[in-house]
Amino acid sequence: TAGNKIFHFGACRVSMSMTEIRAGFTAIKTNIQSRDPIRSLSILSHPHSLHKVKSPDRCCITHHLFDFYVDKVFKHCKTEDSFVNRKISSIANSFLSLRRKLRQCHEQNNCVCGEESTEKLKQILANYEGLNVTSAAMKSLGELDILLDWME
Amino acid sequence: SGELYCSLPNPRNVHFESINMKNVLHWSAPAGTGNGVLYKVKYLVYGVGKWIRKPECRNINTTWCDLSSETSDYEEQYYASVKAFLNGMCSDWVETTRFNPLTDTKIDPPMISVSSTDNSISIILTAPEKWKRSPEEESISLLQVYPGLQYNVSVLNKKTKKRWLFSISNNTLVVPWLEPGTAYCVSAQIHVTTPLLDSGFSKEHCIATLKDK
């Protein structure tokens, strides 16, 4: 695929293209983020930035974050705008195929979740469950660039 | 703070203009207001959510405010907001969309230096630096910010008008098998695949290959 790159997540090396996801998100970013009025909470960055995650834990965190987006976020992000909905489902499909790659890699390399990443994942879920599901899902979707920036 | 009666029209088009992560807030004056409008500015880090006033942009009459220092951590995202005042009246606060310095900045073209032999041209490219507070501060090349940064280089034979395009990741390029005593013009562009960021093409640098001995 255009823009395929080798990503290193701890022990995992995965060839992926973020170009389509980035393009899809850029097209709906302002629309999605304008639906999130809460400035004082970030699902992914509260209380600590993803950039604080240590390299060996990247494999485990990335794998679980893809699960989080596929299982908890995309399905609750319906809007009244068909263009936005189409872009969301396109991003969701890209996540599904990337998740398969990450899952294989996660199993082959036996990516162990360290204490810090387990705590970080718990915090993300707590941030998410602290809001009603639609607000939490929309806020998480609006933070997709935080995840992509960190992955890259 | 004893807010005044806020019926003044709002500032318009409040947005960040960013080049090499020099992040400047811009806006347009409220509709129908002549001179004399003053403004104040505040900003916040997304996820922290505490609005912080920018003292240097309090009661200003310009329609921009440099927030580069306050938004220099490109691992964070930001909002900024502007309020207008005129003759004892004020407007509402008007916010930007969420600003992500990493994806929302524009990048300048690379700097080029060119040298030649009788049948080749050597090109050295330098990516621009990230904005910094003072000359003494350590320089950070945008190459460090965007590890996937590449260069698109165009080489034009002025005589035949034939053009070559190269896409390279490292910052040097030698173009061999050229005609002696001929003028060639080089220009280059920065290309980042994700996030998708392209600079414009640089000004052309022309050089002639040496004549045959």
TrEMBL record, chain A:
Cysteine disulfide links: C12-C105, C59-C111, C60-C113
Record bears the keyword Signal: yes
InterPro entries tied to this protein: 4_helix_cytokine-like_core (IPR009079), IL-10/19/20/24/26 (IPR020443), IL-24 (IPR020444)
Cellular localisation: Secreted
Swiss-Prot/TrEMBL keywords: Cytokine, Disulfide bond, Secreted, Signal
Pfam families: IL10 (PF00726)
Main localization (coarse): secreted
Family, similarity comment: Belongs to the IL-10 family.
Protein name: Interleukin family protein
